[in-house]
Write a structure and sequence with these properties.
Elements: E1 2-7, H1 11-20, E2 27-32, E3 35-39, E4 43-48, H2 58-66, E5 73-80, E6 87-91, E7 94-95, E8 107-108, H3 113-125, E9 132-135, E10 148-155, H4 157-160, H5 163-175, E11 183-187, H6 194-202, E12 206-211, H7 221-229, E13 236-239, H8 246-259, E14 262-264
Parallel strand pairs: 1-4, 1-5, 5-10, 6-9, 11-12, 11-13, 13-14
Antiparallel strand pairs: 2-3, 3-4, 6-10, 7-8
Length: 272
């Protein structure tokens, strides 16, 4: 069983939750934070009051309160960007540097690369007109001890309320099945990880944590080691070479080499 987490303070989350409740036979199995907890054949769905990015250790609280078991957490959420892009996105969580939006400083959270990358692929299949589909780099909280990823609607209230966008995310969650390929770190490029997204959609690879170009100042051997460990003990990395040049690329290549992590190219990967 996996767990879907939604929240009352998030219009996109409410939108997705509403659509999910129409797509399966859900049964009420408890209460958490005064909201009903639902269960289907594959998922629990738990609703919380406040911002999800600050819901530190909510997985522990859910287990203690409800006595239920779940392997992964899928967080249905809004995405906000200054550019106000219409987008559907997927990403792991944690902080490469300071913990400015929940979580812990220089700490990434367990993720399931196989489930998360397949979510991106299914979301691409369910893409709706006018919206881009992409990964985002690892960012923000909360700190959890369960493999977790966010799946989001961006980037303004119009999109968060868009029923077609909510349906696309909900349908993706309901269609989601884990597809196992070699787990990998994705490195380089901007926040939306364009090359890493393209590689995930075309090749047999499962991306876990993703390090964007702007986070390189915080990267050291210790956090890369922990990111690999929390990406299903991955032993390979894919670098967007055009999106990471000069000193930044030399730095990460030296770290990966010292850790015994192999850098692969698309030529090393089989197509889907």
């Amino acid at each position: 069983m996996d767990l879907i987490l939604t929240s009352q303070d998030d219009l996109a989350s409410l939108n997705i939750r509403e659509k999910l409740l129409t797509m399966d036979n859900w049964k009420k199995v408890g209460v958490f934070q005064n909201f009903p907890v639902y269960k289907s054949e594959r998922y629990y769905m738990v609703h919380i009051k406040g911002p999800k990015i600050y819901a530190e250790n909510v997985d522990r609280g859910i287990r203690e309160k409800l006595g239920i078991k779940f392997e992964n957490i899928i967080v249905a959420s809004k995405h906000r960007s200054k550019a106000e892009l219409r987008s559907l996105t997927v990403h792991p969580i944690g902080n490469w540097g300071k913990a400015e939006l929940g979580g812990r400083e220089k700490c990434v959270v367990l993720t399931n690369p196989h489930l998360m990358t397949q979510a991106l692929r299914i979301l691409k299949k369910n893409q709706i007109e006018g919206y881009s589909v992409s990964f985002e780099a690892t960012h923000h909280g909360p700190y959890l001890e369960t493999p977790t990823f966010f799946i989001e609607i961006g980037s303004t209230e119009n999109e968060w309320r868009d029923e077609k966008a909510g349906e696309a995310i909900a349908r993706t969650i309901m269609e989601l099945e884990e597809r196992r390929y070699a787990p990998a770190l994705g490195i380089g490029g901007g926040h939306y990880m364009p090359r890493i997204t393209d590689v995930a959609l075309k090749y047999q690879i499962s991306f876990g944590h993703m390090i964007p170009r702007y986070a390189m100042e915080f990267i050291d051997e210790d956090i890369v080691r922990r990111a690999c460990k929390k990406s299903d003990d991955c032993q390979i990395a894919y670098i967007h070479r055009k999106g990471l040049k000069g000193e930044g690329r030399r730095k990460i290549e030296n770290i990966l080499s010292s850790l015994g992590i192999k850098v692969v190219s698309s030529k090393d990967l089989q197509e889907l």
